[in-house]
Amino acid sequence: MALSLPSSSSFDTSNALAADARSLDRLKFSAGDSPQATREAAKQFESLFMREMIKSMREATMKSGLLDSAQGDLSTDLLDQQLSVQMSGQPGGLSEAIARQLSMLMGGGALQSSSPSTLSLAAPGLRTPTTAPAVSASEPAPKGRDDFVQHLSATAERVAQDSGIPASFMLGQAGHETGWGKSEIKNADGSSSFNLFGIKASKGWTGKVAEVTTTEYIDGTPRKVVAKFRAYDSYEDSFRDYARLINNSPRYEKARAQTDSATAYAAALQKAGYATDPQYARKLSGAIQSALRAMA
To answer: Which candidate among 60, 91, 132, 186 keeps its CA 20 to 30 Å from the CA of 167?
Structure first.
């Protein structure tokens, strides 16, 4: 099949960005300025991906050696560059998924697209702004491990920077306590309490409270009891309250010293009495490992 190379007049500034790293960097940092900038950045990321894919396909093809030359390699590279640009930005393509991810990473609203996608892609070189807003009460709760981790990873990373507790540890524990968002503690009216860590409302707690039936292990036997739990205004409030509890309570001193090992951290929390489940350390360690896989 013959492939036509576009004329120089069709090779505009936008297309040139596919091979211009400096222009791509400018796009990355301006991605949060507007939906249009986000879509353009996403298109360029897709173009780079397509170019590498085409390059890999060519390298996997045996060459005869008869027509190989530096000039021929340059022509092939230019053709690959143009093909990657032409293949990018198509409706329902990879760039739409990247645009949605960029929008969430930069703290913006979800972009409208012509088709849904569950792709999770962190754009190279992008850092989530520390001023990104917390999840609001009007936003739907995440369901399932991958959605849960993607939905809350930026929040966990912000709290991790301030607290020193790894984001994966907090995401894993929040996932374990809520069944990856499927069993959140609810308020009496059915709304979310945003309590991700099962922290109870002790006598010193002066904030909102959610009263629910939960399972407690008494002398190793599981029993249903009614307990009062802390309620928050956002998921970020829950992460920060958890971090304060771990960092400020003397009972979790040994756990704070084990943040380089998920297994040791989970064991220290259980020994400190974080939960009554005798299998809590094993379950928590597994949840943290699961969160790490979802973040990879």
So the answer is: 186
